[in-house]
Design goal:
Belongs to the small heat shock protein (HSP20) family. This protein has one helix and nine strands. The protein has 143 residues and is mostly beta strands. It has a five-stranded mixed beta sheet with strand order 1-2-7-6-9, with no helix packed on it. The N and C termini lie far apart (36 Å).
C-alpha cells in the first residue's frame, strides 16, 4: 500500500485549511465512494448556493464558503450579556476545504448542490483520465 499514492495523504502531510482562513473555520466533511462516483458531503449551515464556491485546480477539489455574516448585538450595548461567543470567533463566517482527488474521475461532469445546510459534491469515476488545470463547478439548490 503506497502512502504517497493515497488520496488521504493530504490530510496527514499538509493542511486542508485555506491559507486565509482562521483556525476552526474548517467545514466538516464526509467522503464516500461508490462504484460509479466519489461523493463529498460538507456541512454548510446558513450558506446558499451563491455563498459556496466549488472548483477543481490541478487535481485538488476546493470548496469555499464566503459571505455569511450574522448581525449580532454589540458587546457595548448595556442590556446585552454574552455568555458564550464561539460561533462568530471561530471563523467569521468563512470556511475552506481542499481535497486531493484520485486520478480516475470525470472532472468535467462534477455536480454540486446545497440542500438543508449540506453541500453535496458528486464526482463521477472514469477509466480514461483527462486532466484539466482549472474547472469551476456550478452550485445549484437541487441536483
Amino acid at each position: 500500500m503506497a502512502l504517497f499514492g493515497d488520496p488521504f495523504r493530504r490530510f496527514l502531510f499538509s493542511p486542508t485549511i485555506y491559507a486565509g482562513a482562521t483556525p476552526g473555520s474548517i467545514a466538516l466533511l464526509d467522503w464516500l465512494e461508490t462504484p460509479s462516483a466519489h461523493i463529498f458531503k460538507i456541512n454548510v449551515p446558513g450558506y446558499s448556493k451563491d455563498d459556496v464556491k466549488v472548483y477543481v485546480q490541478e487535481g485538488i477539489l476546493v470548496i469555499r464558503g464566503e459571505g455569511v455574516k450574522e448581525d449580532l448585538p454589540k458587546q457595548k450595548e448595556k442590556d446585552v450579556v454574552w455568555h458564550v461567543a464561539e460561533r462568530k470567533a471561530m471563523g467569521e463566517g468563512d470556511f475552506s476545504r481542499e481535497i486531493e482527488l484520485p486520478a480516475d474521475l470525470k472532472v468535467d461532469q462534477i455536480k454540486a448542490q446545497v440542500d438543508n445546510g449540506v453541500l453535496t459534491v458528486v464526482v463521477p469515476k472514469d477509466t480514461t483520465h483527462k486532466s484539466s488545470k482549472v474547472r469551476n463547478i456550478h452550485v445549484t439548490s437541487k441536483l
